[in-house]
Amino acid sequence: MAQLPTVAIVGRPNVGKSTLFNRLVGKKLALVDDRPGVTRDRREGDANLLGLEFRIIDTAGFETDDPQTLPGRMRAQTQAAVREADVALFMIDARAGVTPLDEEVALWLRGEDTPVILVANKAEGKAAEPGVYESFGLGLGDPVPLSAEHGEGVVDLFDALRPHVERDEDAEDDTGGDDEEASGPLKLAIVGRPNAGKSTLINQILGEQRMITGPEAGITRDSIAIDWDWHAPDGTVRPIRLIDTAGMRKRAKVQDKLEKLSVADGLRAVDFAEVVVLLLDATLGLEAQDLRIADKVLQEGRALIIALSKWDVAADPPALFQGVRAALDEGLAQVKGLPLLTVSGVTGRGVDQLLQVAHETREAWSQRVSTAKLNRWFERAIEANPPPAPGGKRIKLRYLTQARTRPPSFVLFGTRVDQLPESYRRYLVNGIRRDLGFGSVPVRLTLRAPKNPFD
């Protein structure tokens, strides 16, 4: 399909940019809170405004701090978003009126080539009227009075945006009608503790400073999804949706409301991912919180890869790798043999290998085994290790079928299966992984007994 036009929302902190973003995409994707500066990285989504379709970008609040500071790096991301957009929505708070920072943002926008639409948010009620009139003085044309929270003024916003983003009805689809791959883009989420190097790694993968990074822990707050094409070493081009998430600390240490929202947002990102990379800080090794995050990912049925980040500065790499490998096999015994890779977000070491393994893991996570092949394996497994007979009564296992994929889920039918020991269940699951090509992806096994017509 043809690429959608892009609209960037800009303005000083806490004027309601993320609220408008959520309304336009129809979901609460961006974190919203009363305090200023919640949004830090650019967040993108597909918007629909009264049938008008476009790509919307939520940006960090514009501040005038030194470029080396966190607010300064946030401002650089906002400036990049505006320069790449087809049109910018410059939002002010109509109730607060025009502030000196608003005037500074307007001065900057007047010097850019991107068309600008002035939006006076929080314009419901008479209290906002002075601010709306005052905004005429910014030199950006007539303001669009709007209430992002209550949905007032969307028709006026539609009229203002339409000339900039409406598609040419006669334009041909530039794909020539080719069907998309059945599997679609690889949905790859990067998770881990704060300051493990997640955003730095994503910047290295993309080849640009797309995510804000720095020595401060917890910079990323929203889960940011980025569509990108990976040019693999074999010459193929593979679409990937990269998802950067907020750092996940131990629950007892998470007291701040905003951090709780960020962690919850990261967990939702895991739910929507296909493959999850758990990034460990090689300078700190494996900690209990890493195992908790891994267990959560596996419980959700996602395919999991472990990556040791900052490998370029790791001390005694061979001993560290072997120690982490042993600790993973012990702490996550239910899925021994998880892929363990080494990467560096600074040098780019291991990035192509990580993406290759991610695609291979998704393939295993998505595969389906025919019932005939499955039951040939099942008969051999039972013959090699028959089920026990608790209390002298035999457990009869009849057949096995794959109910679904992503994650691979199997149903085992038999009599008295409620008495099948957990150890035998693990024997079957491990055999399915080992012998049928599922590797270390999570495999679910459900036991079913036929209904007794005389019961």
UniProtKB/TrEMBL annotation:
<keyword id="KW-0547">Nucleotide-binding</keyword>
<keyword id="KW-0342">GTP-binding</keyword>
<dbReference type="InterPro" id="IPR016484">
    <property type="entry name" value="GTPase_Der"/>
</dbReference>
<dbReference type="InterPro" id="IPR006073">
    <property type="entry name" value="GTP-bd"/>
</dbReference>
<dbReference type="InterPro" id="IPR031166">
    <property type="entry name" value="G_ENGA"/>
</dbReference>
<dbReference type="Pfam" id="PF14714">
    <property type="entry name" value="KH_dom-like"/>
</dbReference>
<dbReference type="InterPro" id="IPR027417">
    <property type="entry name" value="P-loop_NTPase"/>
</dbReference>
<comment type="function">
    <text>GTPase that plays an essential role in the late steps of ribosome biogenesis.</text>
</comment>
<comment type="similarity">
    <text>Belongs to the TRAFAC class TrmE-Era-EngA-EngB-Septin-like GTPase superfamily. EngA (Der) GTPase family.</text>
</comment>
<feature type="domain" description="EngA-type G">
    <location>
        <begin position="186"/>
        <end position="366"/>
    </location>
</feature>
<feature type="binding site">
    <location>
        <begin position="121"/>
        <end position="124"/>
    </location>
    <ligand>
        <name>GTP 1</name>
    </ligand>
</feature>
<dbReference type="GO" id="GO:0005525">
    <property type="term" value="F:GTP binding"/>
</dbReference>
<feature type="binding site">
    <location>
        <begin position="58"/>
        <end position="62"/>
    </location>
    <ligand>
        <name>GTP 1</name>
    </ligand>
</feature>
<feature type="domain" description="EngA-type G">
    <location>
        <begin position="5"/>
        <end position="169"/>
    </location>
</feature>
<comment type="subunit">
    <text>Associates with the 50S ribosomal subunit.</text>
</comment>
<dbReference type="GO" id="GO:0042254">
    <property type="term" value="P:ribosome biogenesis"/>
</dbReference>
<dbReference type="Pfam" id="PF01926">
    <property type="entry name" value="MMR_HSR1"/>
</dbReference>
<feature type="binding site">
    <location>
        <begin position="244"/>
        <end position="248"/>
    </location>
    <ligand>
        <name>GTP 2</name>
    </ligand>
</feature>
<dbReference type="InterPro" id="IPR005225">
    <property type="entry name" value="Small_GTP-bd"/>
</dbReference>
<dbReference type="InterPro" id="IPR032859">
    <property type="entry name" value="KH_dom-like"/>
</dbReference>
<dbReference type="InterPro" id="IPR015946">
    <property type="entry name" value="KH_dom-like_a/b"/>
</dbReference>
<feature type="binding site">
    <location>
        <begin position="192"/>
        <end position="199"/>
    </location>
    <ligand>
        <name>GTP 2</name>
    </ligand>
</feature>
<protein>
    <recommendedName>
        <fullName>GTPase Der</fullName>
    </recommendedName>
</protein>
<feature type="binding site">
    <location>
        <begin position="309"/>
        <end position="312"/>
    </location>
    <ligand>
        <name>GTP 2</name>
    </ligand>
</feature>
<keyword id="KW-0690">Ribosome biogenesis</keyword>
<feature type="binding site">
    <location>
        <begin position="11"/>
        <end position="18"/>
    </location>
    <ligand>
        <name>GTP 1</name>
    </ligand>
</feature>
<keyword id="KW-0677">Repeat</keyword>
